[in-house]
Amino acid sequence: MDTKLLEALYWKGVPVFDMGSHMSTVDVGWGSPTFHKMGREKVILIDSVLPFGYELLMCDTDMVWLKNPLPYLARYPDADVLTSSDQVVPTVVDDSLDIWQQVGAAYNIGIFHWRPTESAKKLAKEWKEMLLADDKVWDQNGFNEIVRKQLGPSVDGDSGLFYAYDGNLKVGILPASIFCSGHTYFVQAMYQQLRLEPYALHTTFQYAGTEGKRHRLREGMVFFDPPEYYDAPGGFISFKPSIPKSLLLDGKHTIESHFILVNHQMKQIRSALAIATLLNRTLVMPPIWCRLDRLWFGHPGTLEGSMTRQPFICPLDHVFEVNIMLKELPEDEFGPGIGIREYSFLDNPSLPKQVKESWLDVQLCQEGKEGCEATNITSPSGFLKFPKRSNEDTFKAIFSSFNDVKVIKFSSVEDAFTGFSDKGREERFRRRVKRYVGIWCCEENKTPGHIYYDMYWDEKPGWKPVPPQTPEEDHPPV
């Protein structure tokens, strides 16, 4: 759609053609006029290509193919259209098409396959005319409205195909367990629970914009990054989170128990961010455990009928504003930027040998106990003992000896750091990390129902996870 991408693909030898749509490479944002124009261009393309007799496999750019889907699509030669959906409740437990009578969610046009049949051509033409007649109609809503003019009956008793649209169009709904949304893949891990191999992953049901989508794909180790991503200047730090079993597993899964669990982890991440900026290293974020799902509307904690386990490792964008974490903020106001990497980073096969083999394990110890002193001498087995509650000067003095080490891993960061010696730097750091956290959404039958996470919750006696009580309170805690 844009010339920059066209040229890049051409010079890599990828067959490509110019649609002549003159789209920008800038992230246009969901729902914007440019976003709607992009959707119309897609429909115009479908309507233009089908008459030439070609099948079309269409996909959005925010999805990843995990496995060749063509053999799967070939299993349904009678289908005019095979589409993905936003279904979050499984209707099948194998790799057959979803049961169309049980799919209540929208058909998602981020992944769909067309055959050049007369019914498909008729649908494409009507869909295009609808969108060109009203530039406020979202292409996906238009598709759903037209296709759902008639639903049923089933084409036969076996295939899972059904008649739709004009009564002649044969449609199949790709199973959400293996043609995954951001929810069925990252939150429910439905394909893992059903022991299936996924074909595709579409980063829907997510937050923090394009940066959030990209980070999720990185968490899943399905995003291609250049070699320099895996060998950042200054190296990396990581840490082992400390989570008591009671916070993770005991009691009911409530808003209160969810926030107690997340806040406990957030405090450790805050310390790790401080150490990372102090040592000028990139922080490998830990996996974050959640008790409750995050959505756009009130819910009882998880979606009824879904396979969401409690607790579960939630995507970073459920808690943190990934787009803000990666944004360049003015250094004079927010201090130096702090690089981050996804929790799966050190397990990624793309991690180079020179990083894997340059590693220092740090074990925190209680100062005053035997063998616990601030020194840069490692033990015979190669780890470094480091006193808890160390100050900025101690950190700098000891770890400056390990500047050439690529990865420093702390056994824990609880009570590791007492704070910056420069109060101005401390204040700038606080301003920065306060903006890193987002919201949980949403409590049922409350307007508003969202609750702000607070990076410094522990400094506010009696802090409770409650929605804003007045319009004046409805803002991030800064």
What is the strand and helix layout of this fold?
Blueprint: H1 3-11, H2 33-49, E1 56-59, E2 63-65, H3 70-74, E3 81-85, E4 107-114, H4 118-133, H5 139-147, E5 151-154, E6 162-164, E7 169-173, E8 179-180, H6 182-187, H7 190-193, E9 200-202, H8 209-219, E10 236-239, H9 245-249, H10 255-279, E11 282-284, E12 288-290, E13 312-314, H11 322-325, H12 331-334, E14 340-341, H13 353-356, E15 359-365, E16 384-387, H14 392-399, E17 407-410, H15 423-434, E18 439-440, E19 451-452
Parallel strand pairs: 3-7, 8-9, 10-11, 10-17, 11-14, 15-16, 15-17
Antiparallel strand pairs: 1-4, 2-9, 3-4, 5-6, 6-7, 12-13, 18-19
Helix pairs in contact: 2-4, 4-5
Describe this structure in words.
This protein is an alpha/beta fold and 478 residues long. The model has no long low-confidence stretch (mean pLDDT 94). The chain has a six-stranded mixed beta sheet with strand order 1-4-3-7-6-5. Strands 14-11-10-17-15-16 form a six-stranded parallel beta sheet, covered by helices on one side. It is built from 15 helices and 19 strands. The longest helix is centred in the middle third of the chain and has 25 residues, at 255-279. The two termini are 41 Å apart. A hairpin with a 4-residue loop joins β6 (162-164) and β7 (169-173). α2 packs antiparallel against α4 and α4 crosses α5. It has helices spanning 3-11, 33-49, 70-74, 118-133, 139-147, 182-187, 190-193, 209-219, 245-249, 255-279, 322-325, 331-334, 353-356, 392-399, 423-434, and strands at 56-59, 63-65, 81-85, 107-114, 151-154, 162-164, 169-173, 179-180, 200-202, 236-239, 282-284, 288-290, 312-314, 340-341, 359-365, 384-387, 407-410, 439-440, 451-452.
